[in-house]
User: Which sequence fits this backbone?
């Protein structure tokens, strides 16, 4: 691997093909191979093209001061989410501590959604565990914490199990672990009683000395016991427990040293592929009873965040991870026809907002990705659903349309009139924090709809991006309606395939429209609240020039690009300023204080977008509805 002076992380040989010439991909020496040209380490999005139509949705925004608006507890370390679909609903569980990683007390929360886009308030599913009086080990802290690599299991009999692991702080695994707990989630949303499903043998834990919860086999619910028995017999599922348990009683079959956070999918030939942290991988031909020797795959460039792999609804495969050894952004996806050779790396989420609360081991970024594991349910539709944490404090999901693609053809004319208010917005990439939403709204009438961007978040923003056909000569028109001029900001940009921003307009907080050029910022006049503004841009990338008109009046002629770009292919709206921080050099412990006033929304800024027309400027094509 090579770290170039331009900040682009690549393999030392061209497009990663030279990393493993000694091995054929798909075998024990190289279970999978990723072919790509690297990422830009200086940017949050990695300079990657977006997977078209991705919707990034904030499930839970941590809030210490007003916990009723978040999880009811006000805890600010929230991490390691996992996902399942059962009983016609999405289920997401995650770990939660008051302040930082492995700092007790700890608990697990569960949140549900009918459609994956609108989420209920989290509920406690595994409570704080008070350790019994008297010393247990040198790591005794009085309270246990949760730590789990597996969250759900949909049993063959249809029962939905949710699982967690209790261990001692500050190191909950191995000889300081307690055991793995399980309970059922019923179709009506209630929970069954908590049981231990496996005690930590490495810590000499057993039913006799761990009385907090009963052993699962004592349950009078025979179907619950049968579901637990099926899970215990499934080696592909229980291999996820080994990192925490680490016992040598023969229960686990994965060879070699203890590896972290496995994700497993089956190739078309029936072989199971395991992906661990730090680029490790192995194969099983008998569903986990035996494994090839784990190897580090040289073409998977990643670090201590998790890697996720699965088969997608179109019969292809997707692998989602942070493609950088240092720092946990961007979140990217590579795809494959056979589950062996992956390529076409695309962006899922490249947003890294400021971390609002300081805490132990709170890495910046979008991290610890998980999807819906094999057997854990299939949501309606074709989408790939994944979950992850933001800065180890907020919970997110992403809906990735399948087939996963990166290109658009033909002209565009988007009016939003045929869409359902609050529903999906096809072809648009949306970034939707809970306090900075993007949605279709019936405005200005029930028949005439617009895309609404609303921002009440003091530290984040809403964002909407429309990918269009790559072009050297472009005409772009769109209508905007601002609900105010004294609060809020809207930045409008046209970008190239690497995220460079040659066109930059802003509706600023002082009621002025400003444009960035190579010569500096140009103020082109005021704008008024509650009035429609019709912008018209023509771009000539070979000349690096553009014209700008507002409501039919030309404001700029042959203005120079703010940044060089050979072609353009993205139209972006964002309710906040571009943010280059944090960088990969930012120390997660460098800032010891919380951000000012992170827990109260600011006065809302509202913008409506309508009638987006994007077409070739030569006039050889016409926009179509």
Assistant:
């Amino acid at each position: 691997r090579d770290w170039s002076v331009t900040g682009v992380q690549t393999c030392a040989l061209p497009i990663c093909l030279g990393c493993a010439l000694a091995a054929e991909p798909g075998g024990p020496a190289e279970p999978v191979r990723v072919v790509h040209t690297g990422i830009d380490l200086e940017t949050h999005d990695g300079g990657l093209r977006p997977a078209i139509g991705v919707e990034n949705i904030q499930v839970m925004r941590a809030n210490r001061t007003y916990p009723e608006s978040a999880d009811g507890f006000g805890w600010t370390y929230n991490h390691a989410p996992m996902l399942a679909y059962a009983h016609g609903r999405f289920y997401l569980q995650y770990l939660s501590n008051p302040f930082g990683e492995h700092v007790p007390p700890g608990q697990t929360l569960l949140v549900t959604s009918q459609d994956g886009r609108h989420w209920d308030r989290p509920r406690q599913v595994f409570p704080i565990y008070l350790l019994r009086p008297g010393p247990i080990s040198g790591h005794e802290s009085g309270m246990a914490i949760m730590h789990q690599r597996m969250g759900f299991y949909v049993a063959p009999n249809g029962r939905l199990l949710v699982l967690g692991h209790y261990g001692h702080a500050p190191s909950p695994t191995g000889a300081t672990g307690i055991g793995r707990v399980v309970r059922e989630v019923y179709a009506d949303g209630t929970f069954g009683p908590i049981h231990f499903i496996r005690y930590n043998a490495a810590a000499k834990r057993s039913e006799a000395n761990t009385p907090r919860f009963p052993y699962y086999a004592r349950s009078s619910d025979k179907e619950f016991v049968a579901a637990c028995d099926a899970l215990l017999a499934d080696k592909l599922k229980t291999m996820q427990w080994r990192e925490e348990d680490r016992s040598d009683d023969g229960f686990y079959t994965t060879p070699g040293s203890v590896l972290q956070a496995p994700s497993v999918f089956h190739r078309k030939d029936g072989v199971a592929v395991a992906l661990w942290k730090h680029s490790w991988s192995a194969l099983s031909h008998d569903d986990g009873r035996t494994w090839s020797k784990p190897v580090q795959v040289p073409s998977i460039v990643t670090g201590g965040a998790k890697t996720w792999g699965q088969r997608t609804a179109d019969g292809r495969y997707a692998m989602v991870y942070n493609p950088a050894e240092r720092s946990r952004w961007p979140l990217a996806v590579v795809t494959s026809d056979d589950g062996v050779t992956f390529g076409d790396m695309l962006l899922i989420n490249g947003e890294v907002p400021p971390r609002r609360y300081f805490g132990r081991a709170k890495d910046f970024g979008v991290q610890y990705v998980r999807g819906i594991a094999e057997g854990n349910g299939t949501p309606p539709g074709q989408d790939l659903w994944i979950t992850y944490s933001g800065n180890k404090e907020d919970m997110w999901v992403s809906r990735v349309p399948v087939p996963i693609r990166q290109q658009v053809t033909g002209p565009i004319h988007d009016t939003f009139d045929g869409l359902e208010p609050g529903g999906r917005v096809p072809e648009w990439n949306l970034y939707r924090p809970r306090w900075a939403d993007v949605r279709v709204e019936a405005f200005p009438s029930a028949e005439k709809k617009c895309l609404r961007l609303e921002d009440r978040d003091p530290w984040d923003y809403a964002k909407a991006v429309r990918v269009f056909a790559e072009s050297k000569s472009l005409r772009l028109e769109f209508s905007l309606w601002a609900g105010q001029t004294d609060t809020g900001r809207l930045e409008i940009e046209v970008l190239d395939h690497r995220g460079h921003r040659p066109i930059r307009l802003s509706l600023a907080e002082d009621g002025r429209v400003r444009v960035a050029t190579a010569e500096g910022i140009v103020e082109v006049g005021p704008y008024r609240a509650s009035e429609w503004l019709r912008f018209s841009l023509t771009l000539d990338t070979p000349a690096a020039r553009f014209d700008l008109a507002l409501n039919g009046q030309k404001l700029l002629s042959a203005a120079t690009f703010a940044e060089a770009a050979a072609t353009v292919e993205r139209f972006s709206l964002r309710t906040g300023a571009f943010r280059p921080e944090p960088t990969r050099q930012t120390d997660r412990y460098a800032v010891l204080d919380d951000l000012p006033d992170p827990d109260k929304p600011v006065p809302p800024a509202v913008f409506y977008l309508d009638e987006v027309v994007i077409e070739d400027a030569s006039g050889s094509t016409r926009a179509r509805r």
Summary: Residues 1-20, 134-140, 620-625 have pLDDT under 50 and may be disordered. The chain is about 5% helix and 40% strand. Residues 222-233 form the longest helix (12 residues).
